[in-house]
Write a structure and sequence with these properties.
mainly alpha
């Protein structure tokens, strides 16, 4: 080999070595930027930080305080519900970090409102912060206004391709959720100020459950918004929440429904505290899936196609929402049967509410069966999800408006 060949060979080796090093660096950078690079393979508990454990400790301490102060007013089942709620909230806060700030804000504002009341319900009309911000009616009115504004900003963000509009919509939705939960917590306290025999958890009539429905639907949406890193769907999901808020306002004005009323005998049961929330987790998830179905149909037909998430993302979100809703609705139906056996002496009586609950369950059971067994996807799945919202709405509201039965205590 002559000197020229040797020099060329050395240069080639140096060039190859440099290219290899550069490629390794590029691969390393690409790996660092790839989402999988942030996946921690350690067991879940070993990934928890000091902040995670302090959050859990704060929840346990709060539950301990509540138990020490109110255990005389709690039966065995109330204590069981409290004991089960704490670990559930701890895991939620560990898995979904924004939930921590939400819980803290609700606790601070609710406790602050209770302190301002000083045991006197009349202060709701005289104390400034209660009258204009923290009484149950004021907080729920703030919730309603914030949800409508959030809907407006989500649509502005979607139509104008404005990231700022979507961001404002998200923040307004979070604020609405905070005020709605504060309204429910304070309403719970207000019911006991009216009378110990009147006091009850605020999920007993259409006014209260419409607030609950709005909050649960919004929370599920906010989780999926973070998970899928998209705000475009807020314009659609917040529409159904704004519709619920519109009904809530009409119901308050036309029926004076915001007034706290004693529980009817059939509702004076601890079953209500677990059956109703489980039911409305189902309703909220079904409503969310329907609005995602609307977005799917619009994108497939070329409307706002370049501004909405990919069809496979919409399809996946629709499936997950229905699956979660179906699981909780199934639990709620079983709990409802157990409650019925205690209240009326039988697990099932083909009451209109029970019958339509079964229809809702069968509808989504068929949807999931077709999805898992037959590969249901696309346009048919989206239209089915949207039709399911109509069935669910009748079971939720139409039965109370047009039919009578054992559940007529929720009649309009």
């Amino acid at each position: 080999m002559d000197l020229t060949q040797a020099s060329s060979s050395a240069n080639a080796r140096r060039t190859g070595s440099a290219a290899h090093a550069s490629g390794a660096r590029d691969a390393s950078v690409a790996h660092d930027l790839h989402p999988d690079a942030f996946f921690d393979e350690r067991p879940f508990l070993r990934r928890l930080t000091l902040v995670d454990w302090l959050f859990a400790l704060a929840l346990v301490a709060g539950a301990g305080f509540a138990f020490s102060r109110y255990h005389a007013h709690m039966n065995y089942y109330d204590k069981l519900v409290l004991g089960g709620t704490v670990p559930a909230l701890v895991v939620l806060g560990w898995r979904w970090k924004p939930a921590r700030l939400l819980m803290a804000a609700i606790a601070v504002l609710s406790v602050g409102a209770i302190q301002i009341y000083q045991g006197d319900l009349a202060r709701a009309d005289s104390a400034f912060f209660l009258k204009f911000l923290l009484s149950s009616q004021s907080a729920i009115l703030w919730m309603s206004a914030l949800f409508v504004l959030a809907t407006l900003f989500y649509w502005i963000g979607l139509l104008s391709r404005s990231a700022t509009g979507g961001m404002i919509g998200t923040r307004l939705t979070w604020a609405a959720v905070v005020m709605g939960f504060v309204g429910l917590m304070v309403r719970w306290y207000e019911s006991y100020l009216i009378g110990v025999d009147v006091g009850h958890i605020p999920i007993s009539n259409l006014y209260e459950v419409f607030v609950l429905f709005s909050l649960i639907t919004a929370l599920f949406y906010l989780y999926y918004e973070k998970h899928y890193n998209t705000r475009q769907l807020g314009a659609f999901v917040l529409l159904v929440i704004s519709a619920a808020v519109g009904f809530l306002m009409w119901y308050s004005i036309a029926r004076d429904a915001q007034q706290i009323q004693p529980l009817v005998p059939a509702l004076q049961s601890w079953w209500m505290k677990i059956h109703v929330p489980a039911n409305f987790i189902g309703y909220g998830s079904f409503a969310l899936s329907a609005m995602v179905g609307v977005a799917y149909i619009m994108k497939e037909r070329g409307m706002l196609a370049d501004r909405l998430p990919a069809l496979d993302v919409l399809d996946d979100l629709m499936y997950k929402s229905i699956a979660v809703g179906f699981a909780f609705f199934t639990i709620a139906t079983i709990l409802g049967a157990l409650w019925a056996a205690q209240a009326w002496g039988g697990y099932w009586s083909w009451d209109p509410k029970e019958t339509w609950a079964l229809i809702v369950w069968l509808n989504y059971a068929a949807w999931l069966h077709m999805r898992l067994m037959k590969g249901l996807r696309g346009n048919v799945a989206a239209w089915w999800a949207l039709t399911g919202l109509l069935v669910t709405t009748f079971a939720f509201l139409g039965v109370n408006m047009f039919l009578s039965g054992l559940h007529s205590y929720g009649k309009l």
